[in-house]
């Protein structure tokens, strides 16, 4: 399955600021569901912001220095503002709580990006599936499909209707949007909702791991490359490494070689050698640390590259990935 992911950040990323960041002012704050706030962000001088496409996210740099990634969920055609929605996570690592506490209208934050690992590919029909706050990544895709006159449908799943942001989509598009809550224990059948689909369609999904784990069997009538997902976690971090022996990292432009232990990621080994990399999530989900690979084989641990891109072996995300060969040459 083609997998792309933008996720909430781990504690390890809290002091890693994106290399290029800029200042934004919070123009507006509103509650869009229980424990979910929407923030409208602009430059202090009102100047134009970088363009973005559906599926993109920004790095939000909080006053504490914590860095978190959030999907852009506003109007991509409005070049002067960004919108994000933040769900307060009581059991999270603190980033969402900080945003809910300090994000007042008129206050300033810094941002990096935007970046996009979850792009909307051409198709004759889109089937969108989201769970909970995953709606934020899907919402701009719906707008894009509408503007292009492409058929689309949305299955929006949640446990509690009061916690489901942007449920008004059901009012705007009653024929295309189906919402389903599992408060009473009954789960929706994605297979039944999909019905008859062919390889001219694309399925895009974003939400909790339980939803995405169920997706392949529910969509087995479609080729893997027609299914794209965005996770909030990276289970591959817990899988056994391909190799346990030490390996060498060759920094081609620097002309240096670093020895790494078999269990170490490239970023960990370089950090031990005093060579810093720009990273953010430390979990292989945001794409900040992408490096070009010039030679060697990679033990990929990210959730961004698809099978074809991994097989090509031309790039890697060193915050989690390591060598699968004795020697790895990178463009650094």
Number of helices: 7
Radius of gyration, taken over Cα atoms and rounded to an integer in Å: 20 Å
Largest sheet: 6 strands, parallel
The name of the CATH superfamily of the largest domain reads Translation factors
How would you spell out the order of helices and strands?
Answer: EEEEEEHEEHEHEHEHEEEHEEHEEE
Shape: globular
CATH class assignment of the largest domain: Mainly Beta
Outline the structure in words.
The protein has 332 residues and is an alpha/beta fold. The strands form four sheets. Strands 1-12-11-8-9-10 form a six-stranded parallel beta sheet, sandwiched between helices. A six-stranded antiparallel beta sheet has the order 5-4-7-2-3-6, covered by helices on one side. The chain has a five-stranded mixed beta sheet with strand order 14-13-19-15-17. The protein has three domains: 106 residues, Elongation Factor Tu (Ef-tu), domain 3; 106 residues, Rossmann fold; 93 residues, Ubiquitin-like (UB roll) (Roll). Strand 4 and strand 5 form a beta hairpin. 41% of the residues are buried. It is 16% helix and 30% strand. The chain is globular and about 60 Å long. It contains seven helices and 19 strands.
List keywords for this structure.
332 residues; Elongation Factor Tu (Ef-tu), domain 3; Rossmann fold; Ubiquitin-like (UB roll); 6-stranded parallel sheet; 6-stranded antiparallel sheet; 19 strands; 16% helix
């Amino acid at each position: 399955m083609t997998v792309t992911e933008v996720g909430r950040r781990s504690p390890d990323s809290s002091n890693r600021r994106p290399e290029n960041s800029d200042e934004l002012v919070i123009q507006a704050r509103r509650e869009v569901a229980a424990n979910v706030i929407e923030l409208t962000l602009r430059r202090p001088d009102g100047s134009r912001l970088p363009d973005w496409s559906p599926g993109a996210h920004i790095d939000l740099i909080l006053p504490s220095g914590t860095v978190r990634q959030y999907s852009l969920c506003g109007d991509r055609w409005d070049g002067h503002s960004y919108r994000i929605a933040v769900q307060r996570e009581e059991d999270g690592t603190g980033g969402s709580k900080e945003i809910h506490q300090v994000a007042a209208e008129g206050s300033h934050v810094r941002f990096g990006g935007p970046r996009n690992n979850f792009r909307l590919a051409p198709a004759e029909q889109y089937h969108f599936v989201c769970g909970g706050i995953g709606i934020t990544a899907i919402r701009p895709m719906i707008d894009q499909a509408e503007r292009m006159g492409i058929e689309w449908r949305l299955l929006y799943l949640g446990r509690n209707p009061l916690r489901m942001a942007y449920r008004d989509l059901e009012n705007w598009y009653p024929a295309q949007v189906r919402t389903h809550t599992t408060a009473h224990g009954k789960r929706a059948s994605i297979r039944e909702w999909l019905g008859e689909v062919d390889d001219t369609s694309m399925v895009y999904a974003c939400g909790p791991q339980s939803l995405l784990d169920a997706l392949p069997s529910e969509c087995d009538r479609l080729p893997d490359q027609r299914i794209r997902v965005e996770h909030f976690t990276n289970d591959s971090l817990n899988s056994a490494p391909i190799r346990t022996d030490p390996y060498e990292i060759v920094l081609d432009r620097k002309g240096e070689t670093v020895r790494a232990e078999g269990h170490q990621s490239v970023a960990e080994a370089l950090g031990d050698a005093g060579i810093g990399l720009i990273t953010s999530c430390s979990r292989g989900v945001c794409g900040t640390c992408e490096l070009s690979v010039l030679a060697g084989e990679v033990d990929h641990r990210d959730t961004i590259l698809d099978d074809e891109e991994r097989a090509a072996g031309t790039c890697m995300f060193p915050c989690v990935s390591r060598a699968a060969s004795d020697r790895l040459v990178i463009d650094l």
